[in-house]
Amino acid sequence: MKATIYISLKNGVLDPQGKAIENALGQLGFEGVDNVRQGKMIELDLADTDAADARNRLEAMCEKLLANTVIENFEIHLNDAE
Amino acid sequence: MKATIYISLKNGVLDPQGKAIENALGQLGFEGVDNVRQGKMIELDLADTDAADARNRLEAMCEKLLANTVIENFEIHLNDAE
């Protein structure tokens, strides 16, 4: 089963990387770009066949390793196609 | 208009960061995790009101700054809700 995890900074947490992108876009002449936030996307294959199990395991992975839940939110998407 | 850009490594491009995550998950006891790939997600607000214009501008931003199109693919999602 394929899964994608989206990890983004919580609202209110400063995002210097996003700010740098915003400034760079401005310097390149792209106007009207605002509130740039950079996050992470992690794609992976899981051996699980049960969607609920897979989701539980992915949540545990996010909490233990992938996301810093103090400052980051995560969102899990399962592609059950397989 | 809000937009999200997903940037991922092309197939065949080595992803040492993904590999590191895969190994770390294995060491934490998460089994059956494979093909971990790490990508980026960029969220931003655009002043554009026309979806086609916005998409063109975002493509230009990806090609000029946000993505390295030699080794990365990008995918643009517009949230027209606003």
Low-confidence stretches of chain A: none
Strand content of chain A: 35-45%
Q: Judging from the principal axes of the Cα atoms, what is the shape of chain A?
A: elongated
Largest sheet of chain A: 3 strands, antiparallel
CATH topology of chain A: Mth169, Chain: A
Overview of this structure, please?
2 copies of one chain form a homodimer. The first copy, chain A, has 82 residues and is α+β, with helices and mostly antiparallel strands. Chain A has one domain: Phosphoribosylformylglycinamidine synthase subunit PurS (Mth169, Chain: A), CATH 3.30.1280.10. The first copy, chain A, contains 2 helices and 3 strands, in the order βαβαβ. The longest helix of chain A has 16 residues, at 51-66. The interface between A and B is medium-sized, with 34 and 34 residues.
